[in-house]
Write a structure and sequence with these properties.
By secondary structure, the chain is mainly β. The protein contains two helices and 22 strands. Strands 1, 2, 4, 5, 8, 10, 12, 14, 16, 18 and 22 form an eleven-stranded mixed sheet that branches. The chain is globular and about 60 Å long.
């Protein structure tokens, strides 16, 4: 009886996590969401040394990165498809640790497949992160290493980031809480929504905003926005120095202090 209860619990958890996840349909006619009755959960654990690269790519759904204690990364994937055959043979979720780091990705082997997927990773903050080709929102709780995010069909939220940060080709808004910056600074490019940058009190930076169709504003006391071109702006935060470059923005850009 207990085993049956545990199986029911895990199935309910998987179904709940899949609600609201983005659906990918490559056929001429979309199936209704309730047709995605074949469900699989993947749970894996890995030991990650500081500086390890965690790569997440080709994900048809949201990605959530949580902060872990210690050096253990916990990977949880919930995915579904109309049939068990399509789930197993037509569409695969691959999680593997290699000499280059930890890789999480998907592969599709059949045409006309509809499926849903959600990725949640609890990982140490002292690793490096690369996320690309995601059809959903991306939320990162804490990362102290480098962060590269590209081709995101949703919004990006990063609650605590430090180090070298590069975010590009995002179809939604970008919201970053930046605790520190290294000498390379922060780069944002091709954002179709608004940009909100919350900078820690210790951060001194030169901010460049280029090719923006919205407005640029500062909520930081003593920081003014200077217009230096038709759609280009500059601001100095604190004593300046570290570069923050924001370009090709369709929405507004706002600077804040954390």
């Amino acid at each position: 009886m207990r085993n049956r209860l545990m199986i029911s619990f895990h199935s309910a958890l998987a179904a709940a996590l899949l609600i609201g996840a983005s659906a990918l349909s490559v056929g001429a006619h979309e199936r209704a969401p309730q047709d995605l009755s074949a469900i699989e959960e993947i749970r894996r654990s890995f030991q990650l040394a500081p500086g390890t690269l965690v790569s997440i790519e080709s994900i048809p759904g949201p990605v959530d990165i949580e902060k872990a204690k210690g050096n253990t990364a916990e990977v949880y994937i919930a995915r579904s498809a109309p049939t068990q055959h399509e789930l197993v043979d037509c569409y695969r979720a691959i999680v593997e640790q290699t000499s280059g780091g930890l890789s999480i990705r998907t592969e599709q082997h059949c045409p006309d497949v509809q499926f849903r997927l959600r990725v949640r990773v609890s990982m140490p903050e002292n690793v490096n992160l690369r996320i690309q080709s995601v059809s959903g929102n991306v939320h990162v709780a804490a990362i102290d290493g480098s962060a590269r995010l590209n081709s995101i069909s949703g919004g990006v939220w990063m609650d605590q980031v430090g180090g070298d940060i590069d975010v590009g080709s995002v179809s939604g808004s970008v919201n970053l809480n930046v605790t520190r910056l290294n000498e390379r600074g922060l780069r944002l490019n091709s954002i179709s929504g608004s940009v909100s940058l919350r900078l820690a009190e210790s951060i001194n930076a030169d901010v460049w905003v280029e090719s923006i169709s919205g407005h640029v504003s500062s909520k930081i006391p003593g920081v003014t926005i200077d217009k230096v071109g038709d759609s280009d702006f500059r601001a100095q935060v604190g004593s300046g120095g570290t570069p923050i470059k924001v370009s090709s923005i369709s929405g507004s850009v706002t600077l804040w202090r954390v």
